[in-house]
Amino acid sequence: MTDAQGHPMSDDQNSLRVGERGPTLLEDHLLRDKLFHFDHERIPERVVHARGYGAHGVFTASEDISDLTQASVFTPGKETPVFVRFSTVAGNLGSFDLPRDVRGFATKFYTDEGNWDLVGNNMPVFFIQDAIKFPDLVHAVKEEQDRGWPQAASAHDTFWDFISLMPESTHHVMWLMSDRAIPRSFRFMQGFGVHTFRFVNAEGRSTFVKFHWVPRQGLQSVVWNEAVKINGADPDFHRRDLWNAINGGDFPEWDLAVQTFDDDFADSFEFDVLDPTKIIPEEQIPLRVIGTMQLNRVVDNVFAETEQVAFMTQNVVPGIDFSNDPLLQGRNFSYLDTQLKRLGSTNFSQLPINAPRCPVAHFQRDGHMQMGRQAGRANYEPNSFTGTAAGPRADREAGYRTVERPEAGETRRIRAESFADHYSQAGQFYRSLPEPEQDHVRMAFVFELSKCEIPAIRERMVANLRNVDEPLAAAVADGLGIDLPEATEPAVAPRHDLPESPALAMASRAPEDFGGRKLGVLVSDGTDPALLKAVTSAVEAVGGTVETVGLKVGGVVLKGKRGRTPVDHKIDGAPSVLFDAVALLATGDGAVELSGHPAVKDFVSDAFSHYKHIGYVEGARPLLEVAGVLDKLDEACHALASVDPDAFVAALAGMRRWERDV
Ligand code: HDE
User: Fold this and answer.
1) 135 CA: nearest ligand 1 atom
2) Measured from the CB, is residue 656 less than 6 Å from ligand 1?
3) Pick from 239, 224, 228: nearest CA to 187
4) What is the mean pLDDT of residues 562-571?
5) Whose CA is closest to atom 42 on ligand 1?
6) 122 a catalytic residue
7) Which of 527, 520, 617 lies closest to 574, judged by CA?
């Protein structure tokens, strides 16, 4: 062991003092060195997206799209290392993983032409149309400034006050109230670049493009009551999930897909393609898959990688360019600016997690924490030196060339007329969802607005919702116990004739099997080891995992066995919210003993009311009885005496049993 200067340490337990019990000496340079560094360990957390989790992986391009873009990252078969950071938006660094919130989905591609950062979210639209509103939005959603709460929650007055006064937020709020805001795991989320970008090919021709990440695992969310409980039982639920999956060799994968279109489409589309509160339905421009990303390595050090990674929308490579989306233009300023505040030096791009993996050559010099020893005589150009002394030169052909586009007009602070329709796509989104997903949206609005203390805010929001969908507004008003207020006067009459877009439903991309998910098995003394093994094998065969839960972590004595078989969890620490489905293999006296335990009752009744599949053996009936569900059993409650383990596990595919009457 050494100190920071490399001096060998002889003792890291005791500071230097006079005699045995005397004062500590200022002379103790080793103590001071250690405390000096410790005192400065923290850097500012991100203003937004503070809580995140990252992983390394690789992107493999699959399609020849050289007609669209010259970006080398899309050369078919080419593998490019990536680093992804998933995040929540509103909560502080130490908040929990399952607030109702947008999730960040930021990807850094270390391409051979410099870094390309696709800094997206798990929802395809954004709250605002102009970057100048971003500080207001963020202030409104974060803790209220006078009281310092709520942490990581949008269910409070200032958020809904702002939203209800910003009709342009309505579409995004529909997504925020949907199941997308409470994902089961990062692995089961879609990602979106949100803005319209440009592809540029070698001839300089540009094509508009929207980016999508589509998880091969399918889409999956939890229910709100479950999210609330997960945050208590395991605040690190999502980061643990990603860590466990990757370390267990179950590498999550996403297809990168694009929607590309030209000016003619942009001109004919009902909405402005530069407006980040709008989508282009997949039914109108289908997704084209151009590659796949796999995450396959966790970080070595969360601070060095996940915390110090600096994503920036303006990190683009030759072949990718910006559009005039006003939000994107504002972001292109903000991300660079924030890195200086957070990382403290213009040389943040030299940190290993941020450093390009291709050669870097320029005349930028010095600054705090300069790591490079930039050799040669010239640190400017033009210069008349030759060879290495001369330093680098720009390359007109291979260098980054901004697409040439005509721009004209007066300088004005206005919002284009084409951005004025705030409700039509919000209604289209809602009407495209299947009934269970619509139901969750209604319940979310009622929950959130019930948390507002100022009645006028609730009413104003419901007044806006009348422009989205009348039955939705009526249901929310009913849930709040208020009269339906008069509708807000919209800037543009909302359209209710937009065709439904089935691709917007989570159910349209439901998982195909139980792979990547987890079965919680309640066991007791007397549990049948053969059945436990058969269920475990069936789950593992489709790529899922099984964890056992018992009364004591030391284990249970399985039927016919002598010693104890350890369990993964003591019941108090493993409520059923931590699992995607449960199997009750406790039996006989063991089941009776368990049924007297309050946590067991919650385990079963929560699994039932969270619409989960439940497998059970006959001996586990006392557990179903104590949970009050014995007389409500439905097709998603599987009697393992008559359903074999493979059929049981096959039934766990897809989503929850939404039809259940809970
Ligand atoms: Fe961000 N955003 N943002 N944002 N954003 C940041 O950058 C900002 C927006 C997104 O894991 C900050 O390094 C402005 C849209 C993600 O490190 C900051 C505007 C989308 C992350 C910032 C937006 C995003 C950030 C804070 C409106 C989805 C986390 C720390 C014009 C397409 C990246 C930082 C990570 C982070 C500014 C809107 C996604 C302050 C000004 C739209 C995923 O620079």
Assistant:
1) 41
2) no
3) 239
4) 97
5) 126
6) no
7) 520
The pLDDT, as a whole number, for residue 661 is: 86
Computed over every residue of the chain, the mean pLDDT equals: 97
Backbone angles phi, psi at 479, to 5 degrees: -65, -30
Cα(360) to centroid(ligand 1), Å: 26
Determine if ligand 1 sits within 6 Å of the CB of residue 353.
no
Strand partners, 465: none
Residue closest by Cα to atom 30 of ligand 1: 46
pTM of this structure: 0.97
Q: How far apart are CA 237 and CA 209, in angstroms?
A: 34
Q: Could you tell me the domains of the chain?
A: 49-126+185-342 (2.40.180.10), 513-652 (3.40.50.880)
Active-site residue (options: 49, 56, 212, 613): 49
The answer to whether 425 and 271 have CB atoms below 8 angstroms apart is yes
Is residue 121 flagged as an active site residue?
yes
pLDDT tens for 283-329 read: 999 999 999 999 999 999 999 999 999 999 999 999 999 999 999 99
Q: What confidence category does residue 574 fall into, taking pLDDT thresholds of 50, 70 and 90?
A: very high
Distance CA(534)–CA(648), nearest Å, equals 11
Tell how far the Cα of 331 is from the centroid of ligand 1, in angstroms: 7
Of 115, 121, 315, 354, the active-site residue reads 121
Q: Which residues of 109-144 are buried (b: 16+ CB within 10 A; e: fewer)?
A: bbbebbbbbbbbbbbbbbbbbbbebbeebeebbbbe
121 lines ligand 1 (CB under 6 A): yes
Segment 272-279 mean pLDDT: 98
Tell me, using a 6 A CB cutoff, whether residue 327 lines ligand 1.
Answer: yes
Residue 335 CA to ligand 1 centre (angstroms) = 7
Nearest CA to ligand 1 atom 7: 335
Q: Residue 232: name the closest of 569, 577, 571, 545 by CA.
A: 577
Please provide residue 444's backbone torsions phi and psi, each rounded to the nearest 5 degrees.
Answer: -65, -45
Q: For residue 420, give the nearest of 471, 327, 495 by alpha carbon.
A: 495
Over range 328-357, report the average pLDDT.
Answer: 97
